[in-house]
Amino acid sequence: MLSPTAATVRLFLHVLAATVWVGGQITLAGLVPGLRDLSADAPRAVARRFNRIAWPAFGLLVLTGMWNIAAIDVSSTSTEYQVTLFLHVSVAAVSGISAFAHARATSTVMLAVGGAIGGFSALGALFLGVLLRTG
Question: Which of 54, 69, 129, 43 is closest to 99 using CA atoms?
Answer without folding.
Answer: 54
